[in-house]
Amino acid sequence: MRFTFSAEINQPINRVVELFRNKENLKEWQKELISYEHISGSPNGVNCVTKYLHKSITIIETLLSYNLPHEIKGYYEHLAGKKTVMTHNTVYRFTKISDNKTLFELKMEDAVFVGWLPKLMSKLMGRMFEKYHQDEVDQFKVFAER
User: What are the φ and ψ backbone dihedral angles of 30, each rounded to 5 degrees?
Assistant: First the structure.
């Protein structure tokens, strides 16, 4: 499965990237986030592992590339309890549209749901899944333009 979510942000690319990469800002636009913890690797480096605790799920992020101001690639494992329920690769891309406008894209690739219940839920609630991620991108836009 592949999904792309995007928003045009009325800020220069360097400002958008600065806001995005500062983990202290995550709670401003990821409303479900409770906390995050650096697990291993050099922060913001290739193979850096970070654990994100959300209200309903835990996400383990492994950075695959960190090429700012253009893009960040990561591998994400979603856990319910200790069981993996979903994995995917994601590319966060930042594209300069003009001096004061940036295209922010979240491209989720190779999404795999693990187990019969997550697979069933993805089929029944696929549109809600897409809406959740577009809302997250939109929330980042609102935060960045404040």
Answer: -110, 90
Length of the chain, in residues:
146
Q: How far apart are CA 17 and CA 15, in angstroms?
A: 5
CA distances from 96 to 37, 46, 144 (A): 31, 24, 15
Q: Which of 129, 91, 135 is nearest to 109 (CA)?
A: 91
- Flag whether the pTM goes above 0.70: yes
Return the SS3 of 126: helix
Question: How many domains would you assign to the chain?
Answer: 1
Distance in angstroms (rounded) separating the CA atoms of residues 70 and 91: 10
Residue whose pair of structure tokens reads 């983990």 in the numeric block: 23
In CATH, what number is assigned to the domain containing residue 51? 3.30.530.20
Q: How does pLDDT run across 58-67, given as a tens digit for each residue?
A: 999 999 999 9
Domain range spanning residue 23?
Answer: 3-145
User: Between helices 13-21 and 126-145, what is the axis angle to 10°?
Assistant: 110
